[in-house]
Amino acid sequence: MSEHKKEYHIALGKGDVGKYVLLPGDPGRTELIAKFFDDAKEMVFNREYRTFTGHITGYNGKKIKISTTSTGIGCPSTAICIEELAKIGAETFIRVGTAGSLQKEVKIGDVVISTAAIREEGTTRQYIPLSYPAVASIDVTNALISAAKKLKFRWHAGIVHCKDAFYIESEKGALPLPLQEYNDLLWKAWERGNALATSMESAALFVISSIKKLNAGEVLAIIGATWSKAPIVKKVGIEEAIKIAIEAVKILESEK
User: Fold this and answer.
1) 126 alpha-carbon distance from chain centroid
2) Contact at 8 Å (CB) between 1 and 45?
3) Which of 53, 78, 88, 222 has the least C-beta neighbours within 10 A?
């Protein structure tokens, strides 16, 4: 790693990451993503933040420096990750995550490209009022859609849902949650409002990136059917999501 001052949580300094950073939640997924890089090197693994940096080859044959850093689960750790990566030179973030479907037509193994997020979490409320939307960067979103079309994967684009508590979406247990009926009503509202999927990091990614004039997008592998009370069914679509994100970086770089 470089000799610059390291950020407290991610333990990285200037020069350690590229301008483009792919953000999975799971530290184990950074290793999978790094297999798609040339000359990938593990930079550091501190707390939930594991980072690899390498290169990919752009359309013009030039090498593009790219990194992947895990955010951990949820908006609080994601916010820390984005804040610190931005301080050391990262400019464009693409979350490569997993999610549960909220619509019957969004099948297990499909990918969802998020255009905006429902801010049903607490972190971003401490940045700016809820009337401020959580919206992905248009350039990054368009690049992700173009990549999905080029690669001919089954994809959807639209609004997603972002939450803090994972287990409010599963089947009722012997003892109902205190807010069970309220949560059931909200889930129905998101489904009727055509939210495509639910996960736990997008709101922080979009809001913080908008505030700080960074670029952000998200591509999600659908591994569950939350609409049918099955939040995790099978871990599929992850490599497709990774390939879309990498292709999108090449598209973005070619447009400069």
Assistant:
1) 20
2) no
3) 88
Task: Find out whether 159 and 116 touch, Cβ atoms under 8 Å.
Answer: yes
Distance CA 53, CA 44 (A): 10
For 149, how many CA atoms within 13 A lie in the half-sphere containing its CB? 8
User: What type of residue is 133?
Assistant: P
pLDDT in tens, 114-160: 999 999 999 999 999 999 999 999 999 999 999 999 999 999 999 99
CB-CB contact of 196 with 92 (8 Å): no
The pair of structure tokens assigned to 114 is: 């998020």
Number of helices and strands (H, E) in the chain? Answer: 6, 10
Residue type, 240: E
The alpha carbon dihedral of 197, 199, 204, 206 has a sign of negative
How many Å from the N-terminal Cα to the C-terminal Cα in the chain?
Answer: 28
Other Cβ atoms within 10 Å of 41 Cβ, number: 13
**All domains in the chain, ordered by first residue:** 20-254 (3.40.50.1580)
The answer to whether the CB of 105 falls within 8 A of the CB of 99 is: no
Q: Which region holds residue 163: left if phi is over 0, alpha if psi is between -120 and 50, else beta?
A: beta
* Rounded distance between C-alpha atoms, residue 47 and residue 85, angstroms: 15
Q: Is 42 helix (H, G, I), strand (E, B) or coil?
A: strand
Q: Is the pTM of this model over 0.85?
A: yes
